[in-house]
Amino acid sequence: MGAISVVDQPNLIVSQAQAETVSVVAKTEQITEPESNIEKFWDNAKQTWMNLWLTPEQQGQWYFNQGEFIKAANHYQEPMNKGIAFYYGRDFVSAQSQFVQVQGDERAVLYLGNTLARQREYLAARNLYKDLMEKTNDEDIANVAKQNYQA
C-alpha cells in the first residue's frame, strides 16, 4: 500500500498509569506562533490531498505517527483508535468517553482504567484493574492490570 500503513490499534498496551504534576506538563508544552497565510495554504492543500487518497482511519494513523494526537483523534472513526489518540493527546475526558463505547475489548477496559487514574479517579480505576486481573485470559493485559492495581 505504500508509505502509509494502517494499524488497527495504535500502541495497544500502556505499561502503567502514572500521574504527572502540572509543573512537569507545563514545562514540556510549547507555545506556537500564529500560522501565516502560506502555512494555511499548504495545510489546506495537504488536507485536500489526504481527503482524496486516504480514508479517515488512514489519516488518523498518519497524524498519530506524526505525534499530532488530537488531530488523529478528530480523523479516526473507530472509538478505540479515537480513545487512544485522545489519551496520548492528554484529553482524558474525551478518551474516557470513547473507551466506554468499545464493547468486548479488554484493552479498552485497561485504557479506561488508565484514563480514570489520570483523572484521579483512583478507586474506579482500581476496580477496573481488579476485574481485569480476575476475568482476562490475556496474560499481557493481566500483568499490566496487576502492575497498575498495585501502583
Automatic annotation (TrEMBL):
It comes from the Bacteria. InterPro entries: TPR-like_helical_dom_sf. This is TPR domain protein in aerotolerance operon.
